[in-house]
Design a protein that fits this description.
- By secondary structure, the protein is an alpha+beta fold.
- The chain has a domain at 37-113.
- It has helices at 23-33, 35-58, 68-73; strands at 63-67, 83-86, 92-96, 99-104, 108-113.
- It is rod-shaped, with a radius of gyration of 23 Å.
Length: 117
């Protein structure tokens, strides 16, 4: 039985478990196979990094209060965060890596940094 490269179809020579004729064909095949998943993850990571940058920029001292309008004007996306933290009083903080925010009354947010991460 003749073995051929999974990417370009060229005849394979050598090891019996060989699937590709070259590193380029192997990389091209795997990149094409993972393209949709990679794009999805890349877009989420981009949104998380942007949110982190915004929180960091608006909170240089480590603790401050900002309005929803301030966050939204910089392009903050409330749908993307890395994790949540619920404190003893039941307040829920949303984090983008070490930078977080706590929704407080009247469309304001308390910004914090968790330096223990």
């Amino acid at each position: 039985m003749e073995r051929t490269c999974l990417e370009c179809g060229e005849k394979l020579h050598g090891r019996m478990d060989q699937k590709f004729c070259s590193d380029q064909c192997r990389n091209t095949y795997n990149n094409r196979l993972n393209k949709d998943e990679t794009t999805y993850v890349r877009n989420i990571n981009r949104a998380l990094r942007k949110n982190r940058r915004i929180l960091k920029e608006l909170n240089p001292q480590g603790k401050t209060k900002v309005s929803r309008r301030q966050l939204e004007s910089k392009g903050f996306d409330f749908k993307h965060f890395t994790h949540i933290y619920k404190n003893k009083e039941g307040k829920i903080y949303y984090f983008c890596y070490e930078h977080g925010y706590l929704p407080i009354d009247h469309d304001y947010f308390a910004l914090v940094i968790n330096e223990n991460i």
